[in-house]
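Reply to thread "Modeling small-molecule complexes from scratch"

Following up on the discussion above, here's a worked example others can learn from. I took a protein sequence and the SMILES for zinc ion and predicted the complex. Inputs first:
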Amino acid sequence: MLQAITLSGLSGSLIDIEVDVSNGLPSYSLLGLPDATLSEARERIRAAILNSGFSWPNKKLTVSLSPAWLPKSGSAFDLPIALAILTATSQIEAKCVKETLFIGELSLEGALRPIRGLLPMLIAASHHGFRSIIVPKDSYGEAKVLNQVNIYALPNLKAVISHLNGEERFENPTLLEVNESDRKKDFSEVAGQEEAKFALSVAAAGNHNILLIGAPGTGKTMLAERLPSILPPLTESEAIEVAGIHSIAGKLNPKEAVSYLPPFISPHHSTTIPALVGGGSNSIKPGACSLAHNGVLFIDEAPECSLGILDALRQPMESGEISITRANQSAIFPAKFILVLAANPCPCGKYSGRGRNCECSSHQIRRYLGRLSGPLLDRIDIRIKVEAPTRTELLADSAETSEMFQSRVLAARNIAAERFKDEDFNSNSQIPPSQLRTRYRAKREGMALINALLDSEAISARGYHRILRTAWSISDLTGTDSPDKTAIERALSLRVGLASE
Ligand SMILES: [Zn+2]
């Protein structure tokens, strides 16, 4: 008997493959395969076996995958089913396939083709005790992530059988070293924008979501896409988790499977809810929210999103994961990210506060920014205006590098981690409102300032909490033990008013 792995979300379960050959009218049935891609497997496997020089039994052939109730999808079962048939018809010896896991789709010619979700399958296989796994040759980069398992990356069914019989040795492909720094975008490439860069480092220090408001061409995207470069690098297990999610989505480049740079995912404002949170008809795929897990989700021109799109972000922002249910299956994917939204100041984009070049009415402006719904804005602690850099800023050449920002962010996060070591949260953006008035108060003068603003209704109660949380991150960045008046003032400046409030 052979085994295969099926995925639900990121977790994998074992499937038993059994083949029965009996006398009777020649036929071929595959049981326990509800998914359409898998029914096509029947034809692929038959053609692959014949085209690899083996024979197809002229008998009644029944292949059963169990447990039957477990949803199975995808084409990863092609190779193990083909081997189970060859074993059952005595074309290869049963002992050859013992204790090895086989993963791969077969082409009609018998070539092994890469599949989606290989990495999480391998992780599951390793947990189930497999120490020898055969994968498609082109997936070797992705498979290599797991170093405690023997991986054999082979080109086709024939090669798999030669390998099992010990006839021929295939070398695993050599991988080119990928230099991550080539990919990394650096803050020093952005001229000026000191306030915006500071705001992003505050966001990075305390895991705050942030809204950037500015006319087209002021550099909102350039700034946002550099946020990953100042976040802490991913740990190995975080990087593997991220790679696993990208593998299931079919978005993993096998040549650089594991990256320690937090992901940056930027769905277009015309995106759909399934593309954003995950879904799909055959097998459930993770959406942009999960691809951004442990990194940054950036939506440019956020007010242009269709109705419901931004609201769909609330579930993952509250729980850090997304559960998706379809007719016969369900999956949970992690989705913890820093949300960066960008918006033009008005529908035409030219509004600058002085009204120059802009004919949008104040009503239109209010309606435009009003599309960023209240409940979502409640989860965005920081919002700043981004202006085009001045000529002096463009000519200045001593911009700080991402590394310099990152070292301050890391120091600030260490301070916060120490402070929160006995809490069930670990970042400033998660401090519960009740504790902001008790345990995590600002210093006396800071509290006096913010209480006065609340009393005069200059800020709302929710704004009050967000300002305090931001002030904690500013305080951590500057190394003070709790937010002083300056930190509160700074936090207030990172919270521009919106006409819609
Ligand atoms: Zn306008």
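What I'd highlight from this example: Residues 346-348, 350-351, 358, 360 surround zinc ion (CB under 6 Å). The chain has a mean pLDDT of 89. Questions welcome below.
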